[in-house]
Write a structure and sequence with these properties.
Shape: globular
Bound molecules: ligand C6P
Structural class: alpha/beta
Distance between the termini: 39 Å
CATH class of the largest domain: Alpha Beta
CATH topology of the largest domain: Aspartate Aminotransferase, domain 2
Strand order of the largest sheet: 4-10-9-8-7-5-6
Number of strands: 17
CATH architecture of the largest domain: 3-Layer(aba) Sandwich
């Protein structure tokens, strides 16, 4: 059975009609839909086990703590981290990258460099801009080639500046490019830099093994991988995480507090001040169980087939430009495109009238848009529940766009 046939009955929202047409949801890179298993796990938690975690001795407090911490164990196994202490729960990728930029930013000195790339999402640009600002440090970027991949020769040259941090997306949310993060992390380490990987578009679609990648930090969001909004993960290699001073304070991140000083808690709680997203952790655990039951390799294969079909079908439509690698084996599950003479927002609105949801705009990657010389693009993105028929419906509707205007 095809993966979409197997999974679709689990996603109640996919039964909706949009403008009188069956919903064709091709915007999972912005946020995926949720299976019943995730929705029910969260409802069950609130109905039977909710209390705050790590502070109450009563039964509900212990049950909630147990559920929250078992989600951490599950995440550890899911991404191949060496220990549970390396898993910090955040509010999402953006939050994880800000946490890092705030903590590392405090250690930057005049003349230090932080290296990002031209294809980064604003979440992996702005926090570093803020970190270098006022500290006399500099932000540099690895250029993107005409094929939509990183210019690794330029990366090698930029490493000669001995940056303190190299921060790079695992998978671009626009081009779909899968970056060689293992090699990038190794070269960053040789140059004395910390490596930070933005895994927002990788974790939902590829098997990720942070130990094998050898990066220092890896951030991702639950809501793009069938889980709830409001929670994400920041993986930190034990020694790298231990070397960071927490930049955010509050309850639970301390062991002992005096009025003028405090002793930090152990890892990972040192980086989790305040009441964490507990129900969301329960939902994330259910999402990981769901993904693992399907099998990450099988998911990647299904989405590669959809991406390949979309690349082929859209390339055959006159006046369509596709951005990023044309080879589905080198790409995540996104296809960004434009139709000559049609603004991407108009394209998305016309597709929506047919029940087809795609994203249009700059995709929070304005430096990349500038590099591509466009104001924005339309973008179709795929998940476990999408079918080849939906890809064909997209291509058919895109072919009719000019006549629909
Ligand atoms: N990209 C998209 O439509 P948050 O919002 O914190 O969960 O994820 C931010 C983020 C960081 N890095 C990459 C590569 C991303 O793709 C995203 C989110 C969505 O492309 C929403 S802008």
């Amino acid at each position: 059975m095809r993966l979409d046939e197997l999974t679709r009955p689990d996603f109640p929202i996919l039964g909706r009609l949009i403008n009188g047409r069956p919903l064709v949801y091709l915007d999972s890179a912005a946020s995926s839909q949720k299976p019943r298993q995730v929705i029910e796990a969260m409802a069950r938690y609130y109905e039977t086990s909710h209390a705050n975690v790590h502070r109450s001795i009563h039964t509900l407090g212990e049950e909630a703590t147990e559920l929250y911490e078992s989600a951490r164990d599950r995440v550890q196994r899911f991404i191949g981290a060496a220990s549970r202490e390396e898993i910090v729960f955040t509010r999402g990728t953006t939050d994880g990258l800000n946490l890092l930029a705030e903590a590392i930013g405090r250690t930057l000195r005049p003349g230090d460099e932080v290296l990002i790339t031209e294809m980064e999402h604003h979440s992996n640009v702005i926090p570093w801009q803020m970190a270098v600002r006022d500290r006399g440090a500099a932000l540099r970027a690895v250029p993107v080639t005409g094929d939509g991949v990183l210019d690794l020769a330029a990366f090698a040259r930029l490493l000669a500046g001995r940056p303190r941090v190299v921060a790079v997306a695992h998978v671009s949310n626009v081009l779909g490019t899968i970056n060689p993060v293992r090699e990038i992390a190794a070269r960053a380490r040789e140059a004395g830099a910390l490596s930070v990987v933005d895994g927002a578009q990788a974790a939902p679609h590829l098997p990720v093994d942070v130990s094998a990648l050898g990066c220092d930090f890896y951030a991702f969001s639950s809501h793009k991988m069938l889980g709830p909004t409001g929670i994400g993960v920041l993986y930190g290699r034990r020694a790298a995480l231990d070397a960071l001073e927490p930049a955010r304070g509050g309850g639970e991140m301390i062991k002992e507090v005096w009025l003028d000083r405090a002793q930090w808690n152990d890892l990972p709680w040192r980086f989790e001040p305040g009441t964490p997203p507990i129900a969301e952790a329960v939902g994330l655990l259910a999402a990981i169980e769901y993904l693992e039951k399907l099998g990450l390799e099988r998911i990647a294969e299904h989405e590669r087939a959809l991406t390949r079909a979309a690349l082929q079908a859209l390339a055959a439509v006159p006046d369509v430009t596709i951005y990023g690698p044309r080879d589905a084996d080198r790409k995540g599950a996104v296809v960004a495109f434009n139709v000559a003479g049609i603004h991407p927002h108009d394209a998305a609105a016309l597709l929506d009238a047919e029940g087809i949801a795609v994203r249009a705009g700059h995709h929070c990657a304005q430096p990349l848009m500038r590099r591509l010389g466009v104001v924005g693009t339309a973008r179709a993105s795929f998940s476990v529940y999408n079918s080849p028929e939906e890809v064909a419906a997209l291509a058919g509707a895109v072919a009719r766009l000019e006549s629909m205007l």
